[in-house]
Specification:
With about 475 residues, this protein is an alpha/beta fold. It has helices at about 1-15, 40-45, 60-65, 90-100, 130-150, 185-200, 225-235, 250, 255-270, 310-325; strands at about 35-40, 55, 55-60, 70-75, 105-110, 160, 170, 175, 210-215, 240-245, 270-280, 330-335, 385-390, 400-405, 410-415, 425-430, 435-440, 455-460, 465-475.
C-alpha cells in the first residue's frame, strides 16, 4: 500500500511539474469560425448573364449566403489577368460589396496572372525574367500595394493566403521545392518569398489592426505529404497563423483520411487549420456543353450520393471534422465556387457542384451553413468520454491487454512507468480517431529485456486528458 501511494504521488508530481506537456489550446475568442464561399467567379458570371434565385425569386447570391449562415467571402487575386477578371480593381469591387453586407474577407494571392495550383505556379509575365532578389522585391511591393488599396476603401482582409496550393512552391522554377528542387536552398528561397509577402501585409497595419496569414496546400487527406511540407517550411522559421488545406475527395482521399490528417497537423504544429477549398456534386448530370470536372460515380464517396441531400451531408460532415479538431484548432470551412453556374455567354465545368441548380435556384444543401453548430452530432455508438480501463488480466504474467476509449480525435500516448516514476516503455504515440482501442503489453522493457515482479503504472494521455491504472506483474 505504501508503494502504491508513493507511485501515485510521483505521478502527480510529474503532471504538475510539466513532464506531461500538452499542446496549447486555441483561444476561441481570437477568431470566429469561418463558414463561407469563394466568390471569385461571381462578377464574371453576372456580367455573362447568369442570374440567381431563392425559391424562384431573383436575388443577390451573396445575400443568400449571408442569410444562411456564411460569414466569410474568399476572393482570389491575379497579378495582370487577361480581361481583368480577378485583377485588383475587380477584387476591390467584390470586396466592397461583400464587406458592406457584413462578410469578413479572405484574400487569396496566386502570385500569377492565371490559375495557380499544384501543377501550375507560373510567374506573372511582369516578373518572368526577374532574378531571386528582384522577385523578393516584387512580392513585397505587390503585396503591400494590394493590401494598401484594400485598406484605403475600408476592406482590409481578415485573412490573407500567401500563395495558392503551394505544396511544390511558387513562382516556378525559381521558388520550386518538389522533386529535383527539394533542396535546402530552395526551401530557404520559398521561406524568404513568403516572409516578404508577410512583411508587405504587416507594413500596412496600424496599431490594433490584425491580418492573419495562411499557407495553403492541396493535401487534405495526405498526412505524409502535409508533414513533409510543413516540417520543411517551419524549419525555415516562417511565422504564419493558419494551415489551409484543399479537400476534394476524388483527389484527396476519404473523410477518414481528412480527419486523421487534420487532427495530426493540429497536434503536431499547434496552428489553426482551415479547409479553405472543398465541394461535392449534387448531380452527375450536365446542363451545358462544357465538360464537368466530376461526372463519374467512381469519383464519389461511399455513402454520399450525387444528390442535394448527399451534397448537404458531405458539407455537414466536413464542417464537423474541422470543428472537432484537437485543442479547438479548427478555424473554418470555405466552399469553393458555390456560385459557378452556367451563364448564357459561357459554360461551367463546376455547374453540378455549385450550390444552385441548373436554373440558378438555390439548393437545399445551403442549410449546411445555417448555424455555427451545423454538423455537430452525437453518435451513440461512439464513446462519450475519455476512459482508460483496468488492464486484464491483472495481476498478469506474460502479457496483459490495455483498453481505452476516445470521444474525439486526439494525439494519444500510452506509456508504462515503474514504481519509482521512471518511464519503462512507450506503447503508443500517434493521432487517433474517436473510437475504442486496445493494445497489449508483454511485461518487457523498451529494449525487450524482461522486467521483474512489481507494480507498474499504465499512463494514457489523450489530448488534455491524462488517466492511469495500476498493473501488477508477477513472475
Amino acid at each position: 500500500m505504501i508503494m502504491i501511494l508513493r507511485t501515485l504521488c510521483l505521478l502527480s508530481l510529474f503532471i504538475f511539474s510539466g513532464i506531461f506537456s500538452q499542446p496549447e489550446k486555441r483561444n476561441n475568442g481570437a477568431a470566429e469560425f469561418a463558414l463561407g464561399g469563394d466568390a471569385s467567379m461571381l462578377q464574371q458570371i453576372e456580367d455573362g448573364g447568369g442570374t440567381f434565385r431563392e425559391n424562384g425569386v431573383p436575388g443577390d447570391p451573396l445575400q443568400m449566403f449571408k442569410d444562411h449562415g456564411m460569414n466569410y467571402v474568399r476572393l482570389k487575386i491575379w497579378h495582370t489577368p487577361v480581361g481583368g477578371w480577378n485583377g485588383l480593381e475587380k477584387v476591390k469591387e467584390t470586396a466592397l460589396r461583400a464587406k458592406n453586407m457584413g462578410f469578413k474577407l479572405l484574400l487569396d494571392f496566386h502570385y500569377s496572372d492565371t490559375w495557380a495550383d499544384p501543377g501550375h505556379q507560373t510567374k506573372p509575365a511582369a516578373w518572368a525574367n526577374a532574378n531571386f532578389d528582384a522577385l523578393k522585391d516584387s512580392v513585397y511591393n505587390y503585396t503591400y500595394h494590394v493590401i494598401a488599396e484594400l485598406k484605403a476603401q475600408n476592406t482590409l482582409p481578415e485573412i490573407v493566403q500567401l500563395g495558392n496550393e503551394i505544396i511544390c512552391g511558387m513562382l516556378w522554377n525559381t521558388v520550386r521545392v518538389c522533386d529535383t528542387y527539394n533542396t535546402p536552398q530552395q526551401w530557404a528561397r520559398l521561406a524568404a518569398i513568403i516572409n516578404e509577402g508577410i512583411r508587405g501585409i504587416n507594413d500596412n497595419l496600424s496599431s490594433g489592426e490584425e491580418v492573419r496569414t495562411m499557407i495553403h496546400i492541396a493535401n487534405g487527406g495526405d498526412n505524409g505529404g502535409s508533414r513533409w511540407y510543413f516540417d520543411n517550411l517551419l524549419a525555415q522559421n516562417v511565422d504564419f497563423d493558419i494551415i489551409g488545406q484543399s479537400y476534394y475527395p476524388w483527389w484527396h482521399g476519404t473523410l477518414d483520411d481528412l480527419a486523421y490528417n487534420l487532427g495530426d497537423l493540429a497536434v503536431r504544429y499547434q496552428k489553426d487549420i482551415m479547409v479553405v477549398e472543398t465541394a461535392y456534386p449534387w448531380t452527375l448530370g450536365w446542363n451545358d456543353n462544357t465538360n464537368n470536372i466530376v461526372g463519374l460515380s467512381s469519383q464519389l464517396l461511399s455513402g454520399y450520393p450525387a444528390t442535394v441531400s448527399g451534397q448537404k451531408r458531405f458539407l455537414e460532415d466536413v464542417i464537423q471534422i474541422v470543428r472537432q479538431l484537437p485543442y479547438d484548432r479548427g478555424a473554418g470551412v470555405i466552399y469553393w465556387a458555390p456560385d459557378w453556374i452556367s451563364a448564357p455567354q459561357f459554360g461551367s465545368p463546376w455547374e453540378n457542384m455549385a450550390l444552385f441548380n441548373f436554373s440558378g435556384n438555390l439548393l437545399a444543401s445551403i442549410a449546411a451553413f445555417d448555424s455555427v453548430t451545423t454538423g455537430i452530432q452525437t453518435d451513440a455508438s461512439l464513446p462519450q468520454e475519455f476512459l482508460l480501463h483496468p488492464n486484464f488480466p491483472n495481476p498478469f504474467n506474460g502479457g496483459t491487454v490495455i483498453e481505452y476509449e476516445l470521444p474525439r480525435q486526439a494525439q494519444v500516448t500510452v506509456k508504462i512507468f515503474n514504481s519509482l516514476g521512471q518511464q519503462i516503455r512507450t506503447l503508443r504515440d500517434e493521432a487517433q480517431l474517436p473510437g475504442r482501442y486496445s493494445l497489449s503489453w508483454d511485461g518487457r522493457h523498451e529494449d525487450g529485456s524482461a522486467l521483474g515482479s512489481g507494480i507498474y503504472i499504465i499512463s494514457l494521455q489523450a489530448g488534455e486528458t491524462r488517466q492511469w491504472q495500476k498493473a501488477i506483474l508477477l513472475k
